[in-house]
Prior knowledge:
Elements: E1 7-17, H1 19-25, H2 28-45, E2 51-56, E3 59-65, H3 71-96, E4 103-118, E5 121-125, H4 127-136, E6 146-150, H5 151-155, E7 166-169, E8 173-177
Parallel strand pairs: 4-6
Antiparallel strand pairs: 1-3, 1-4, 2-3, 4-5, 6-8, 7-8
Helix pairs in contact: 2-3
Organism: Chryseobacterium potabilaquae
InterPro entries: Uncharacterised_Rv2561
Protein name: DUF2652 domain-containing protein
Amino acid sequence: MKNTNIQEGIILIPDFNGFTEFVFNTKLYIGEYVITQLLSTLMESNNQYFSISEIEGDAILFYKYDKNPSYIKMNKILQKMRESFNKRIGELSRELSITINLSLKFIIHYGKFSQYHIGNFKKLYGTTIVEAHQFLKNNYAEQPSYALFSHSFLDRNVDFKVNADELYLSEVGGIQYFEKANQPI
C-alpha cells in the first residue's frame, strides 16, 4: 500500500512556559480566560500562513507544506507572534490586575509527514511530528523563552545565516533566546 498523502513541510509548535504553575495558582475561570486569549492571539498573529492541526492545553501544532522554507520569513512570523503574545499578556495583566508569569517557546522542525482524518478531525502523522514534540521536552534550553530550530529545518533553508545571538548544538540545531514574556520587547 502506498500513501500519496506524504508531503514535506514545516512543523511549528508555540508552547507556554510556566503553564502548569499558572493552572495551579490561578482561579479556573480566570485561567481559562487568559489561556483562551493567548492561544487566540497566537492563532491570529499567524495570519493564516500555517494551518492548525490541533490545540492541546498550552500548545498549538501548526504545519505548512513547503519544500523551500525560509528562515527569514519564519523569524518574522515568530517575532510577530512573540510581540502579540507579550502585548496581550500586558493587557490581560492590567485588565485582571494579576501577574501572568508565562513565557513563550517555539519548536521549528522540518520533514515528511502525512495527514489522516478521523470524524471531523485532521491529524498529522509521522516521525517528524513525534520528533517535534520530543524537542519540547529538552534539556538544551537554558532560558524559558526561546526558539529551537532543528537541524532538518536549518538544512532546508537557502536564506539561513549564522547569527551570533544563537546557540548551536550538534544534537538538535540552533536555539535563539528571547526575553521573558512580561518584560518589554
